[in-house]
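Homework help thread (please don't just give me the answer)

Our assignment gives two proteins as sequence + structure token strings and asks us to describe the second one. The first is just a warm-up. Here they are:
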Amino acid sequence: MAVSRAVRLDRPVLQEVCRTRLGSDPGCRGLGGHRVSVAAETGQGVRAYGQVLRLPGARSFVAAGILARFPRATLSLGIILLVSAATGSFASAGLVVAPLVVGMAVAAPLWSSRMDRHGQARVILISLGCLVLAASGLLALVLTGAPFWTWLVAAFVTGAATPDLTSAVRARWTVLAPPAQRTPALALETIADQMVFISGPPAITAVAAALDPAVAVLGSLGLGVIGGVWLASQRATQPAPTPRGPRRGLVLPPAGVIPIAVACIAFGGVFGAFDVSLVGWAELSERPWLAGPAFSALAVAIAIGSVITGARTWKLSPAARYILFAALACAVALALPFAQGSAPLLFGVILILGLALSPVMVSGILVASARAPEGRVTETLAYPTAAMSLGVPIGGVIAGAALDSTGPAAALVTIAVSLACAAAIAAVGEALLRITRRR
């Protein structure tokens, strides 16, 4: 794919991109269609991260993307804190969060599809305006004690108004970084995700405790708006919009991404089951404060694993890595029920589990980016994230039922079951996809 078609760049920037198009193509086409030679070599190890961050505009949209992630990463927790404080019931908080998460999962591909068609900048600004209005309405309904059903409707609308700006950032990498640099580039985005999930929940909880849950929600929205506007302002690195072509009424995922997207529903269940299981384990152990460090341990391990994943040169395809490491993580997760009697041992298993999960997360995004049809990159990259969002509450419900009926050991088993399902679904889906393509 020619750089000039993929991203709007002036001549100096284009020449810099051509100098950094490495490994996969001996050259790239300039503004006039002439080929420009490539003299650089792909960086190895951690140098690969420095190399992708030196691509023109990369550092700015990475920084903007970190801030833009905050609403999607922390809004659910903020609403739980807000509703539980207003009603005194965590059950009610869970009921309100459910339509919020469903709204996010359903609408994410729709927003991303519009970004592909009309350009990221325009759609990001519109979606952020909708999010601010919807979230403000939800806050007002909760704080004024409006009927509970209105909270549910407002929560769904708020979720539906939340754009998946993570996919918007990843789409920029797919047009800016050559194939040889996609793994470190997308691993960098997984690291950024974990940075937000490590810092976001403790920060929003601290603000809610020190000031008010409503202030915490508004703070999360504020960071997201700042990051989103900053990202929208960086038009030079956004994928070129493709307004022409047949309009699609119903947005369906491309066939090539369906196996991984469906597997990501089960993979999302891992995190829902993990959250519920570890909270239950900590409370039944009479050490509720251990749940927070357990979540942070998993996030830190995933971040470290993502660094390692992006720094390696892999011979296996991304789809094969997804299946292999999901199966490996399943084997590791089977040790969790046996380790629950010792906190140090359990934390050790959690760290190993996080290292095994990170290649799965990076590989899923790589599969989606490689199989995205022209003009649907941002939309296609939204499907794995949306699928995981759907899987989180499913895993939480199943683990919660196991926790109530049997205890933490059974709940921890659901983590391994979710991973086994993810590996099996991906393997069967890839096999069916190959059979279909041969026909």
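The one we have to describe:
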Amino acid sequence: MKIRDSFSRAEIDDYLDEATVPIRLACHTPAGRLWMLSLWFQYRDGVFRCATGADADVVRYLEHDSSVAFEVSTNDPPYAGVRGSGTATVDPDPEKAVLRELLERYLDGTDSRLARSLLEKDRNEVTITVDPDVVYGWDFSERMADVVE
């Protein structure tokens, strides 16, 4: 993985460990159009792992073209984040292991109505793994110091 901009590899790892905003994932449709979606993620060992339904459009898109771009960034000032590009793979997750981990990360458990519906037995789940080629990190905290209280 090639690192660019203001974050070191350690800072990127720390930022992505702490970030609980979704990853914004961009890919191409089979018709060559751009497609973007937001997914919950976990970042471990230099790769992003996301979960989605096996019948989601993005699964078909990634099977056609595995090239992706991504961004994980704050929604409020001061802005900071990580963006880059890489390759995505899609694998079945019949036990919904990644989904369970993401439910713990984003919802603090599996007791909510949303979690129960996502974990239903008849729902087929996949894991999308994004292996970054290039990663850019940025932090505008100093630059925006006078606009944030």
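TA reply:
I won't write it for you, but here's a hint about the kind of observation we're looking for: The chain has a mean pLDDT of 91.
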